[in-house]
Every structure is written in structure tokens, then in C-alpha cells.
Design goal:
The mean pLDDT is about 95. By secondary structure, the protein is of the alpha/beta class. Strands 2-1-3-4-5 form a five-stranded parallel sheet, with helices on both faces. The longest helix is centred in the C-terminal third of the chain and has 24 residues. It is built from seven helices and five strands. Helix 1 crosses helix 7 and helix 3 packs parallel to helix 7. It is about 55% helix and about 10% strand. It has one domain: Glucose-6-phosphate isomerase like protein, domain 1 (Rossmann fold).
Length: about 190
């Protein structure tokens, strides 16, 4: 048991150290998102399972506050994973593959940025939603693991391929990037 714990912590630390080398890429992504906010757009974010939880977490940091010391207005962000009535209706009546794209089609404008999270990069419902976002003229950003999957090949505006093939490590890095991104957005928009 102790070996498993130590190895998991070591793997997590090493993955985040590799992530540090991607700071320029993360900056490029933040600039895309900031441009949307500066043009009165919003963020739409989604994923499945643990990625759904990460999407909700990131949206909460923007709508509420990342740091309670920073008094600022709400920053518009919507996680498409929070309304169980919508989720179950779409999954049951239309199909799980359209779970997010159906929502994106109605909520997204060309001023917005859409972020789809998938550790494999191959989740059909995330892929469909990113495609729908591009059709609506929004900026489409994919967060994946190291291989990128199909999401890395579909011509999104930005693909963040975090340096791991292990689901747990990928999700840990996604939430780390999410916190960094929120901190950048908060400071750039409100100077605190």
C-alpha cells in the first residue's frame, strides 16, 4: 500500500513538472479566452465523468471567485454538466452523442469560447460539441492527454495535450491548468 501511495504521488509530481514546460502554450490558450471575454463573450465548458467535475469546478471559480481576497464581478462561464433534466432528456430522447452539442447549438455565439475536456481525446459527445461550436463561430479548445486522440485532429483553435497517458494524472493536470487559467483571467480582466 505504501509503495502505491508513494508511486502515485511521485507520478503526479513528475507530470506537473512536465506541465511547467508548456507555459507558453497555456499562455497562448489564455490569450484566446481573454480575447473572448474582452469582446463580451462567455466560456462554455464540459466533459464526462471526472472531466465533468473539472468543468463544473472551473466554471465555479470564474462565476464566483478564485481567491476570496479578490473582489470582482462574476466572469461568465457555464458548465454543460449541471442540469440533470437536460442531460437525461437529451441522452434518452436524442442520444448521448448529442449531449453537449445540442446545448452548444443553442447557447453559443461567435463571441464565445468552448472548452471540451476528454482524457482520451476520443469522447464522441465532446467531439460533436466542439464541432458544433466551430459551426457557430465560437473558439473551440480541446483539453486531452498526451496522445490527443481525435480531438487533436479536428482543427480546433487550440489543443492542450497534457503530458500523460494516465487518466488520473491527466485530470490532475487539467484542474491545475484550470486554476492557472482562472488566475490569469482574473488578474488580466480585473488587475488583482
Amino acid at each position: 500500500m505504501e509503495n502505491t501511495i508513494r508511486q502515485s504521488l511521485k507520478d503526479s509530481r513528475e507530470a506537473k513538472q512536465k506541465l511547467e514546460a508548456m507555459s507558453k502554450e497555456i499562455e497562448e490558450m489564455c490569450k484566446i479566452i481573454l480575447n473572448c471575454y474582452k469582446n463580451k463573450g462567455k466560456m462554455i465548458i464540459f466533459g464526462n465523468g471526472g472531466s465533468a467535475a473539472d468543468a463544473q469546478h472551473i466554471a465555479a471559480e470564474l462565476v464566483c471567485l478564485l481567491d476570496r481576497k479578490n473582489e470582482r464581478p462574476s466572469i461568465p462561464a457555464i458548465a454543460l454538466t449541471v442540469n440533470t433534466s437536460i442531460l437525461t432528456a437529451i441522452a434518452n430522447d436524442i442520444g448521448y452523442e448529442q449531449l453537449f452539442s445540442r446545448q452548444v447549438h443553442d447557447l453559443v455565439t461567435d463571441k464565445d469560447v468552448v472548452i471540451g475536456l476528454s482524457t482520451s481525446g476520443n469522447s464522441p459527445n465532446v467531439i460533436n460539441a466542439l464541432q458544433s461550436a466551430k459551426e457557430r463561430g465560437a473558439k473551440a479548445i480541446a483539453w486531452t492527454g498526451a496522445k490527443g486522440g481525435k480531438m487533436a485532429e479536428m482543427g480546433n483553435d487550440f489543443v492542450l495535450k497534457v503530458p500523460s497517458d494516465t487518466c488520473a494524472r491527466i485530470q490532475e493536470m487539467h484542474i491545475t491548468v484550470g486554476h492557472v487559467m482562472c488566475e490569469v483571467i482574473e488578474k488580466e480582466l480585473y488587475g488583482r
